Amino acid sequence: MGKKWRWGVILDAGSSGTRLHIYKWKDPEKALKGASKHELASLPKLMTEKIWTKKIKPGVSTFGEKVHAVGPDHLQSLIDHALEFIPRDKIRETPIFLMATAGMRLLPAVQQSALTREICYYLRSNTQFSLPDCDMHIQVIKGETEGLYGWIASNYLLGGFDNPDKHQHGKGHHTYGFLDMGGASAQIAFAPNATEAEKHADDLKLLRLRTLDGSPVEYKVFTTTWLGFGVNQARESYVESLEDLYPTSSSELPDPCLPKGLRTTLDGIPVTTPKPGNTTLIGTGAFDECLKKTYPLLGKDKPCNDNPCLINGQHVPAIDFDVNHFIGVSEYWHTTHGVFGGKDDKAYDFATYQKRVRDYCSQDWSSISSKFNPKKVHDPKNAQEACFKASWLINVLHDGIGVPRIGIEDLPSVNMSKGAQGALEKAKTKGFLDPFQPVDKIDGIEVSWTLGKMVLYAAGQIPPRSGDDRWPVGFGSNIVGASSAGAIPDDFQFAGSSWRPVGDGGHHYPHNGTAGWGDGDDDDWDLDAEDLLDRAKTKSTQTGFFLFVGLLGLLVWWFRKRERRMRVYSRFQSFSRRASRGRYSGKYNSGNGGSRSPLTKLTSKLFGGRSSSGGSYERVMEEGEADRFELGDVASSSSGSGEYSDEDPSSDHSRGSSSKIGSQFGRSSGLATPTATSGGGLGVGGMGLRLWRRERLSLPLSAGVTGRRSRAGSPTRMKSPLGGISPLDER
């Protein structure tokens, strides 16, 4: 996939199942190269594909009493799916998250803790994904956090962050509200208008993001959750209310929220012949009555301790539907589009939707079941519960949250300029400027709170601009004056990421979970956004430098063999002597303490030649000598006196019919010295021994073999250089 991409894996552990999501985005340094002005002022661009997602059932929460099975029996199939798409060389630097929602929130704290520990242990033991902090990567998130992530994802996909001028809803407002409903809980998240934001500042979350150029951006968002108000939990509460409504002796409970003629157990399992003693539900198909019987579940009669309140006595700042336009995901989408159609609807119209629901729910179950379309209704249970879900959604939306009933109630007028009105009319074709619009995908990407979490993580990888490093990426309580001072709330949740070059390992932040914030010694913050911009502009200079280094490396590789260096050295020596006979002939000779021409010194350094210092003796070769010596390899007579060996420099025992003289020393110095013959004569015309003695007796103490001290000047050598032993025999 190339070196420029970063990857992220997140597992949404819901109440009914676990869904894998994979995202990828450009490394910040790569994204900066050639970025337009608009792109620099935007958040990182994340990408995903439908095939990268996978959902399995049941939920993680069902493993509360068998925690050791959650890895092999549940998670492994999702991990295997992820490994099919993420490049192998990216695994170690790819973060993995598992974030559990309402299903896990309903478990006892002991089971929650046991499951999260086991999941982290399993992922660390069986995968190579980046998981440096268990508490940050594997957790049961609060409903408020889930709602905030969903709010980020919605505005990210709709363009509310990057193109605020194209999403002016009036009164300077340009973001969208977010509604989510799952099986066990429901969430709401929105940015109140300026008046409400000031009035309820303490109730808001301070969200900080960072654009590609390193600039900080802030939003103040209200988010809350209603645990137990998801469709499955609400259904259970509804059935309990029916049991309380009728006498305990009743074996059949009329259910206006079931299609007419459908009979089920209290758990929703269809039955044809009821068993004696078992209570069953029998559908009456009366949708208006269904609406009335589900309304009390909203808890509108609960006391409100902090006005205003919406559902279940829970405080929510007043919603200005002039500017707050909500999108709804999960059950808001499935309930409006799964059974009742409307996939081509561009906006939610209450009158149209309620008519469809009434027409459907008034049918006999036999008529409904005969029209099952497997491509449209994947599970018959969806069809039998569609009427209840529709009534619950309508009550939550309109009586609970207060969304105006489009088609029946008129919206207040919105004051804006003609230009803004024109932009709104054009944008209405997308269907996101009504008070409420259910969505599943935007521009082909599923709207999921997991995307919001990963957007936050990717934004945290962008280094801040110089001077803007007081604003970390993440969210926390809205402290008065925090925006201007760059304060970090005590409960601030960091993005969990910081910037490092691609391939710099998988641990993107220190183990204290602060994403490198405030450490002072974290390398991740040494390069700010301006540094990256400069680096992106100097790629051509770097290319020239790397080319030079490459050529230098090639030259070093060619000279790696000593024989090649010796051949070049001999040529330089010959040239140096000819030069010495000219300009330096009277100056660089044995009479001046062994000084050499600059060219000779240079070649000695380059090719390993023997260096001289101070008053050390420098051998001066007579004219013609170079032609008589073979550099690095001189043979002795057949009865030779031995071999100068790497293993034993002093050995004088014969190891063959021929030997190399001074193989180690000769190579290190650039010259090989001839040896004496066994008959006491001098090798190479009688001159060799004299030269050899002069050379050996003058070696400096630092010229040993492989780091040993030289013994050339020892008393024994000076007394008997040609005795019964070789001059190199002593130790």
TrEMBL record:
InterPro entries per record: GDA1_CD39_NTPase
Keywords for this protein: ATP-binding, Hydrolase, Membrane, Nucleotide-binding, Transmembrane, Transmembrane helix
BP-aspect Gene Ontology terms: CTP metabolic process; UDP catabolic process
Gene Ontology molecular functions: ATP binding; GDP phosphatase activity; ribonucleoside triphosphate phosphatase activity; UDP phosphatase activity
Active site positions, chain numbering: 146
One Gene Ontology CC term in the entry: membrane
Annotated Polar residues bias: 665-677
Presence of keyword Transmembrane: yes
Coiled-coil regions, chain positions: none
Bilayer-spanning residue ranges: 543-559
Binding residues for ATP: 183-187
Feature: compositional bias, Gly residues: 678-687
Residue segments, region Disordered: 582-687, 700-731
Family: Belongs to the GDA1/CD39 NTPase family.
The name this protein goes by in its record: Nucleoside phosphatase family-domain-containing protein
Classification lineage: Eukaryota, Fungi, Dikarya, Ascomycota, Pezizomycotina
